[in-house]
Amino acid sequence: MTPPSSRRVILGLGCDRDTPAATIDTAILQALASVGLTPAHVQAAASIDKKSDEVGLLDVCARYGWDCAWYSAAQLKHVAVPNPSAVVMKYVGTPSVGEAAAILRAGGSMDDLLVEKYKYRGADGKHATVSICKIAPQMQ
Hints:
The protein has helices at 21-33, 55-64, 73-76, 86-92, 98-106; strands at 9-15, 42-48, 67-71, 113-121, 127-134. The chain is of the alpha/beta class. It has one domain: CobE/GbiG C-terminal domain (Nucleotidyltransferase, domain 5).
C-alpha cells in the first residue's frame, strides 16, 4: 500500500567511498524511523553525481525500487541548507550533498526538511548520511 502523497518524501544520500549497502540501508532505516516513516514513504532518492558509481548506494536504491537523481556539485552548491560543511566543500566542491540533493529533487527549501542530516557510522567504519525532504506540492 502506498502512503498518502502528503507523507511521500525524497531521500538525499551521502556516504564515504565504498560504503557497503548494509551500512547505507541501516542509516536510511534509522533516519526514516526517527520521523515515523518507512521505505514505503520514499518516492525517490538523490545524491551528487560523483556517487553515481557507488555500488552500495546503487544496490540500496535498486532493492527498494527508488530512482536516484544525480546532481553536480555546481547544482548543489547553490541550494541553501541548514548544515553546510567546509569538509564536504573541500572534498566534493559543494558544502552539502544529502540536504541539497533532497531539497533539489523535492522542489522545496530547507524548511521542508524533515531530517536535516542524519549521520551514521557503520561497524565497518564507513559513514553514511541521510536527509529527508517533503515533496513540494508542485512536484507531486
